[in-house]
Each structure stands twice: as C-alpha cells, then as structure tokens.
Amino acid sequence: MTVRPARLADVAGFSSDRVAAAAGDDPDVLRLENLDTDSPPPREAIEATKAAVGDPSANSYLPFTGRHDLRRAVADRVRARSGVEYDPESEVVITSSDGDGLLDALLAVTDPGDEVIITDPTYAGILNRVLLAGARPRAVPMRALEGAWRLDLEELAASVGPATRAIMLQNPSFPSGYLLTDAEWREITRLCVEHDLWLIYWALMEGIVFDHGAVIHPASYPGMRERTIVVGTVSLEQRMIGWRIGWLVAPEAVMSDLSVVHIYNGVVVGGIAQAGALAALTADDDGLAGCLAEWQRRRDTVCEQLRGLPMLTAAGGWSQILDSRALGVEPGALSHALLRRRVAATPMTGWGGPVADRHLRLVFSREPVPRLELFGDRFAMALADLGVTSWTMP
Questions:
Q1: Which CATH number describes the domain made up of 6-41+287-385?
Q2: pLDDT tens digits for 255-268?
Q3: Cα–Cα distances in Å, from 36 out to 192, 240, 264, 367?
Q4: What's CA 244's distance to the chain center, in Å?
Q5: N or C, which end of the chain is more exposed by having fewer CB within 10 Å?
Q6: Could you report the per-residue pLDDT of 278-289, keeping only the tens digit for each?
C-alpha cells in the first residue's frame, strides 16, 4: 500500500475551487471566490500569441532559460521599478508560471528543516510550497492599525532564528491587500542583511496599487540586490492568467541553482506564451492604468456595500478580507450562507495562521460595479439567515 509522504502531511488543497464548484454555472451568482478578472489582456499580447501558433521558433525546447528578447524585457521592467540593473543573460530565467518560480526559489535556497518567514495572512500557495520544499513556515501576524494592515515588526524580528533561511513576501498582498510601507521594508531588509537571509519577493501584483500609493521595490534597498529573488509574471498586471508564464530575476551567484531547478521542474516555457508575454511587456500601453482605475472603483463599491462591517480596505491587489469571527460566525459558515444568497466567497482557513483563519476573502476584480451593487443586500440576508442582526448594512 502506498504511504503518503511526510511532506504532504500538512499540505491542503485550495478552498476556492470547492466554493466555485458549489456555485456552479448560475450567472446570477456574484463570483468573488477566485482570483480572476474580466479585464482583457493587452491586444498586442493576444495578436502575438496567435501569430506564434505554427511558428517553428515557438515550438522548441530551446533555450531552456527563455528567449533572449523576453529576458531583456523582464530585466528592463525590473530596472524601471527598482532602479537596479540585471544581466538578462546571467540573471533572468523565464519560468512556466510564477507558481513554478516560487517553488524553484525555495528548492534553490533552502534545505529540509530550514525556516521561511511568511505573513499571516498569506497566499495558501506560499505556505504550502514552503512545506513541499521540506522547509518550515514561520508566520508573522499582520495587525489592524488605524484602518490598515501593518506588519508586526517586533514579531518579525523575534521570528528570525538560527534555522531561518529566507523571508517570503508579496507586495501588495493577496488575499488581504496589505501594502508594505518604506519603514516596514527597511526593517525587513535590515534583518535580511544582518542575518544573511534570502528575500523571495513575489511581484505578482507589484503595480496594482490604489489611492496613488507608491510602488516600492525591495531590491533597491542597500545590500538587497545580492540577496533578493524576484518572482514575477504577466498574470495579473497584464491580465494574462491563461498564458502561465513568469520569471525569476536574481543575482548571478544563485542563478545557476535556480536555472537547474527550473529546468528539472518546468523544463522550458512554451514559445507561444513567450511571444505573448514579450508583446505585453514591450507594448506602448499595456492597459494597466485603466484597469487600476476600474479595480479601485470595484474595491470602493465593495467597501460601500459592506460599510460598518469588520473589514480593512485593500491598498492594492484584487481582493480584501472580512473578519467573520468578529460577526460571531465561522468563515466557512458565512461562505455557505452567502452561497444560498447567490454570492461565492472563500473562507481563509489555512491561509497563514490564526489571523487568516478568522477571515472571508472577497475578490472584487471579476465583477463589474453594477453587479457589486447587489452585494450589500445579499450579504445582509446571509447574516440574517445566520442570526446576525447587530450590524448596520448600507
């Protein structure tokens, strides 16, 4: 009989797909459960992808690390955001998605038993990839302070120990939408430099920042170029989820290990997807500014619909989270009640620790404003079904 390997003992599947399956294909259901968007990819990316179909150069295993012009475009993008130069030949690898890149990075810089610091909440895919790599996640809580999520810097410093090998972060974060400040980045990078830690920085939503917030890149801080692994993608900013393509940008000293892991994990990215990604990254206008404005309108609509409820406004990204236990109900029970009222939303149990476990995630990037304006009434009915009556709805 096959015995389940120990590294899978604490690895759980996503809950969003189960909520999606329960919601079915009913067009009346508000789809807030999964990280999707109806905002289209850049036109140039679609055209380049179509043109690459049947092109022999797009139907090859080589080069394993990705086509040169795409690696150059990625290096240019990171330089534009961080001010830091990277060599596209020796410090950039194109991966089969940012998800592959996260696991590649962990396998390249950690040994079994090493500790990796993450936040609570975090993306479940971060937590579970740490476990798959054989490392141990150490979750540092985010705190609600003055209407925003803030990293507990004292807990962060206390979490660094002899076994710590890396800190793994997004910014902005999925699912909570937190946005790290300069002060928080200074403390994070100070710890990385003083304790010789890797920073695995997932730039999934780096440019999706609301209310004129700044895009801050950790590689720009003193001592961080040589210890930052940037994991990027066109999935969110360019709305190219289906292309399944990303990249790793890192100092040359670790890139040979990252490249080896990538080759034996993903081999090579499909040439068709590479053509689309190149077109998106080199387009005169990838459409992000217009999408940002629309996603912020949607975020604001969700906040208005749930005004007065225990929920912090996302500073960036595609989702935010609501404290279900503050309402006296478990997130899973609230999710079920909402499904009966034609709203699909995912409980955050298992997305980091005790902070995440209290919350329900609301993805606002997929539904247009007129449909989101139905949310408040449906939420109120779901709360009433659960016997929660002490909160004032809009």
A1: 3.90.1150.10
A2: 999 999 999 998 89
A3: 33, 10, 29, 9
A4: 14
A5: N
A6: 999 999 999 999
